Amino acid sequence: MYKNINARPAMPSQKAEDRIKNFDEVNLGYTVEMAKLEAERCLQCKKPLCVEGCPVSVKIPEFIAAVVEDRFEDAANILRQDNALPAVCGRVCPQEEQCENLCVLSHRSKPIAIGNLERFVADWQRENIGIQVPEIQTSTGKKVAVVGSGPAGLSCAGDLVQMGHEVTVFEALHELGGVLTYGIPEFRLPKEIVKKEIEVLEKAGVKFVRNYIVGVIETLDELLERFDSVFIGVGAGLPYFLNIPGEHLNGIYSANEFLTRINLMKAYKFPENDTPIVTMKDKSVAVFGGGNTALDSVRTAKRLGAKHATIFYRRTEAEMPARIEEIHHAQEEDIEFNFLVAPIKFNGDENGWLKSVTIQRMQLGEPDSSGRRRPLPIPDAIEDIQIEAAIVAIGNGSNPIISQTSPNLNVNQWGNILVEKKTMKTNIPGVFAGGDIVTGGATVILAMGAGRAAARAIDKYLKNKQWETIEVEQAEW
Amino acid sequence: MNKIIKTKFLNERVKLFEIESPLIARKRKPGQFIMLRISEEGERIPMTIADSNVETGTITIIVQSVGKTTSELQKLEAGDTILDIVGPLGKPTHIEKFGNCVIVGGGVGAAIAYPTAKAIKEIGNYVTIILGAKSKEYIILKDEVSTFADEVYITTDDGSEGMKGLVTEKLKQVIEEQKIDFVLAIGPVPMMEAVASLTKPYGIKTVVSLNSIMLDGTGMCGGCRAVVGGKNVFVCVDGPEFDAHEVDFTILMQRNNIYRDKELECNLEKQANEMQKKMEQNNV
Ligand code: FES
Fold it and tell me: B167-177 and B189-199 are packed helices; what angle lies between their axes, rounded to 10 degrees?
């Protein structure tokens, strides 16, 4: 069959001038025709490299083949064998660095839009036949506590419940989903999708307990008295600040606070919703950082009506860790970029409100240990830039609540929990951990991969009651 | 869970709630707080746990109406349920055998000071309590603290009870009469600041409990940050109690005003809604 390998349908999206006035999803998703056209481009490689690039080894050619044949339900089931949250991953995974990066077509034309197809299949299933509750194996009578309801916790819980274990997920906030709920904005990941996925887990038998902070209300040791095993997937979640003078000024937020106010507390609906946010309408808002969280923040500020919503980044666009798609979206939305600048102090008025930031202009020097060219200050290139709000999006450290209340849990100098890589087991028998609390800030899919690896190891451990040697046939995460 | 068992107005603006929350009742220590939310659209606000009872599985909070959430909270009665409660949060008060202690509670700050004062007394300290308020009606927990404190003094701005004047004036008297080893001051920021500058020259160890604006209460957002000893701290996890002589009160006060204009907006909207309602009623 003739294949037009050059046509990769662009993802339809809301027009930039419309979407900056709402919080609705930017991307609209492929139509059936587009999905089929794109699926037909797949060469169905015998040795698919794309699968190697996927942290959870989704059987990519198989699900794409099903799309070609109109078997969308089968496609969804194939996806779900390896990925508990395909509608989420189809939206937020950095496919261009993973599966799509390895697609052989990328040498000749454009790689298969694996992410867009994944999203299409998952959405089709949810909208047309509903997400199926997976088959549950006979009850093992074993109880597992999962701490944290973000991507790591959800994928771990989903797998464990299918294996027949009794699973309870504990969440610190009043809503489930972790970073999917409080961190990633509605315009990139509608909360309804997260809710639907969680509903299915609930139907499968997972119990969810909200407003429950393990460590303070019940320690790890106490949990181990009522559960056979515990998985810790509490995420990162102690925001870093720039540590420069004036950072206490009013109008300066961590990205965590800014995004939580908007996404979780719906501050953009103030005063119908009670949680406020400082006024950004017609203001100049600066976001410090170059990752996805920085872009989420700056695009959110734009939607709140900011006149100038600007990224301040120490290096250049080429070094930005954010996804290319998000950078493009931001550019379309008139987000401004101020590259090669490092803030050195914030300046305020007599009432403590932010007025400006003093920045140092930088230039790129030799590559550093990360392989990226190191930014170096240009002598005397210091200036004041007027801003009225600032969002600091330079990453998160690990929240110390669990490690402080379980002093015998081994953590590294940054408070990340130490685990054995294959099994995700910690030094405490019965306790496993994964996701950002282990790796530091990483991606949704890596956290899900870790949750899944842990689920396999927990299953083995519960069946054999062997802690020292948990045999799993599983790649490293 | 989270069912209100008992309520009682301590004065026209301050209401006490006993809430069913057995797990928190079992775990909480003096100085700790909860975060609560009363409706789906509601904000999360911190509330100090004033007391708890392990047998009845209840915790006590004392709420002063200062804004929308607190005044709506005050409308709840026994039998109602609080939508979300999470805790216990924050570091418990560091309690040791200090010797001669003075606890100063300004207004509703008495509610926050109360559990700590009791705990300090229980391990054998000598405890003097000074409660201050605008006038007699606003003094709360006087009878409760009198059951355990060695000395209790009241000050009111108008002299309607106890000494006419500020808590700091009484505190100064006490410090000049006795050798004081430890002061805990909880109340409005200007009061805590005044206490801090009063005790500093005497070299008396002084602790204050900071009332920052909070969002999650678990160290996740940094919105509650304050400057103590020249460093950024997160009040919800590093505090809420800090060495009074190290706290930057100016910054604390500024940060507590972040949403001032928003509160106004909220009130205006409320008034507009009420007017609308009235007009509609008149029409029918
Ligand atoms: S309230 Fe969010 S870190 Fe303290």
Answer: 20
Q: Do B145 and B108 lie in a common domain? A: yes
B206 shares a domain with B109: yes
Single out the residue in A376, A394, A412 at which a domain terminates. Answer: A394
Instruction: Tell me if A84 is assigned to some domain.
Output: yes
CA of B85 vs chain A CAs: smallest distance (Å): 7
Q: Do B41 and A401 touch (CB under 8 A)?
A: no
Cα–Cα distance, A11 to A112 (Å, whole number): 12
pTM: 0.92
Give the residue-averaged pLDDT of A244-254. Answer: 96
- The answer to the question of residue B235 being in a domain is yes
Confidence of residue A2 (pLDDT cuts 50, 70, 90): very low
Nearest ligand 1 atom to alpha carbon B223: 2
Mutate which: A171, A244, A275, A437, vs B, most B CBs within 10 A: A275
Distance, in Å, from the CA atom of A85 to the CA atom of A62, rounded to the nearest integer, reads 18
- Decide which of B42, B68, B89 is a domain's last residue: B89
> Which stretch of DSSP H or E encloses residue B131?
strand B126-133
Task: Count A/B contacts: CB-CB distance under 8 Å.
Answer: 119
Dist CA B249 CA B196 (whole Å): 10
Domain containing residue A411: 143-237+397-469
Residues A183 and A102 in one domain: no
How far apart are alpha carbons A223 and A156 in whole angstroms? 17
List all residues of chain B from 245 to 274 with a beta carbon under 8 Å from chain A: 250-251, 254-255, 257-259, 261-262, 265-266, 269
Q: Which residues pair with A357 in a beta bridge?
A: A346, A385
Weakly modelled stretches of chain B, pLDDT under 70: 266-270, 281-284
pLDDT digits (tens, 9 = 90+) for A15-60: 999 999 999 999 999 999 999 999 999 999 999 999 998 888 899 9
Beta strands B33-37; B45-48: pairing state = antiparallel
- Domain-embedded: residue B281: no
- A186-234 pLDDT, tens per residue? 999 999 999 998 999 999 999 999 999 999 999 999 999 999 999 999 9
Q: Is residue A476 part of a domain?
A: no
Over residues A143-182, the pLDDT tens digits come to 999 999 999 999 999 999 999 999 999 999 999 999 999 9
What are the structure tokens assigned to B19, written together? 């809430």
Is B24–A238 a contact, with Cβ atoms under 8 angstroms apart?
no
Residue B130: give its domain's CATH number. 3.40.50.80
Query: ipTM surpassing 0.95, yes or no?
Result: no
Closest-CA distance of chain A to residue B49, Å:
14
Mark yes or no for CB contact A250/B251 under 8 Å: no
Quick check: A174 and B87 CB within 8 A?
Answer: no
